[in-house]
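Morning!

As promised:
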Amino acid sequence: MDRKSEQTFRHAVEEIKKGKSFLVASHVNPEGDAVGSTLALALGLKELKKDVTAYLYDPVPATFRFLPFADKVVHKINEDKIYDAIFAVDCGQRDRLGEEFDKIRNKGKLINIDHHATNDCFGDINIINPDACAAGEMVYDLLKEIPVAITLDIAINIYVSVLTDTGSFRYSSTTPKSFNIAGEMVKLGVEPWDIAQRVYESYPLYKLKLLATVLNTLELSNNGKVALLVVTLDMLNKAKASKEVVDGFVNYARTIDGVEVGILLREAKPGEYKISFRSKGRIDVAKISEEFGGGGHKNAAGCNIKGSLTEVKEKVIGAAEKKIYETAAI
Amino acid sequence: MDRKSEQTFRHAVEEIKKGKSFLVASHVNPEGDAVGSTLALALGLKELKKDVTAYLYDPVPATFRFLPFADKVVHKINEDKIYDAIFAVDCGQRDRLGEEFDKIRNKGKLINIDHHATNDCFGDINIINPDACAAGEMVYDLLKEIPVAITLDIAINIYVSVLTDTGSFRYSSTTPKSFNIAGEMVKLGVEPWDIAQRVYESYPLYKLKLLATVLNTLELSNNGKVALLVVTLDMLNKAKASKEVVDGFVNYARTIDGVEVGILLREAKPGEYKISFRSKGRIDVAKISEEFGGGGHKNAAGCNIKGSLTEVKEKVIGAAEKKIYETAAI
């Protein structure tokens, strides 16, 4: 189904023009695009002198607290307030809005703006564009359609959305439009080096120490086609690190020459591991994750498995080797 | 002096139009921009049915051997041949062309196309644009001026020039034009993920093992404002790694929260260390390097120091702490 053509920004613009008071929300565990697209839209509505609340169920991660308007984000829904419309941005499913979704649902017309092809259209108005590299790109399109002049504060949020969701303009989701938007934001005053330092070049010391420990766990199998890294609770405790710090470590396994599938096992609690799979492109790791009740995309997927470290290792390496064998046979 | 206005692409275009046979050359130890801009210009001239030789003194690094026309690069100057013009791209000084420079110098009119502000104008025609993010950007401008239609093979080379010289669109040299060129190259068929994997996501296994060892040498001083990493000959030998593998490791020191100066000491030979300094922006590390007879840019510089590891560490940490103290006092 081509969801793009169902409903368009025109429907959202109508609601914005006739309304006065809006809530903008995004998903739990927000990353750069969730935070950036929420704040860009909230700031855009403020430019129109609307009453705007930006809501995220979880705290804004430290990395993104420099974003303009990040300090105004609320984490509780005001029980008494009703809005003219609620925007959900970058949210593929309703439950991704967090446990307060039912409260949000009843507070006004729900406008769902998202770039995930799997979006289940939980809104009253659903504008889904899987070709957009980031929800921030869709907010950019919406602001242009209203139109709202893009201030530097809005530009910084849009830039960070596009930057982070394209992996610094590296992922296959990067399009000519991604580059054109980024160029326009830089013209408006965004400083690429300043942003890159804040987003990518700011490691807590314990993260680097943990990385050194984790890299030492590297194991290769299947003639170097599968690489596996392990993070135990003991390592996290010793480094005094939270589990979020581990995000991205799996990429070190994938980047090794000849590796087709990179795997990271993180001990979630004694006897249970959270598994991240990454592939270079050829192997569909979502299919591997599904075998263990997980899911994801072709090149990035995950699941949880119970068992001892040895058992879990055997299971995931076995499943990866099987998938590589099957893929070669096609 | 604004060198930009001295001579323009028009002078180069005249030489191209009247000539038949050209040599394109770049600097020793070529990186992405040197290789990409050389190959893009060579391929552009080939589109005009010219006779073209691409020359680099050193081999094309393995990472960049996938670039179209990279397999045609020669590393020896043909003693007998005379060209209508010689292009030097991305070369700040004549001796950067390599030991065969004098042979090159006598083979035709020398056209110097570069984006380094420090270029010493060693050519007969000198086109210097310090605002260009890469020599590849200048080759793009030249091809547009001729004009030559940009083929996919040319586009890949220009894209890699811009990508690598802006550090994946992160350095302060990144401009709206960098993004516009990248977007145009993607429109022409360049695949950002394919290129990014080849350029950034292909680590030999021993590099990752060496990284783990090097991260374990991390030392902080000056209240966490100076971070130091060490690579010894013993570590390189044990990892069976060449010294080039260490390039970029210094960035791990710089990325730590609160660090102002990141330093990497690499043992060049017993009793002598090659030092790399990186700053986040405030501290001028070129000034620190100059104290030891080295040089570089404000945020990236280097030098060589003789002595024992302990002596060299003390010297560089002391110099960095002094510079931080002086900078704070300004």
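Residues 1-5 of chain B have pLDDT under 50 and may be disordered.

Hope this helps with the figure draft.
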